Amino acid sequence: MTGPAERTVVHLLRHGEVHNPEGVLYGRLDGYHLSTLGAQMARAVAQHLEDHDVTHVVASSLLRAQETAAPVAASHGVPVTTDDRVIEAGNLFEGARVAGMRPSAFAHPRHWSKLTNPLRPSWGEAYDLIGARMVEAIADARNAARGHEAVIVSHQLPIWTARNLLMNRRLWHDPRKRECRLASLTTLTYHDDELASVTYCEPAAALLAASHGGTG
Question: pLDDT digits over 144-168, tens only?
Answer without folding.
Answer: 999 999 999 999 999 999 999 999 9
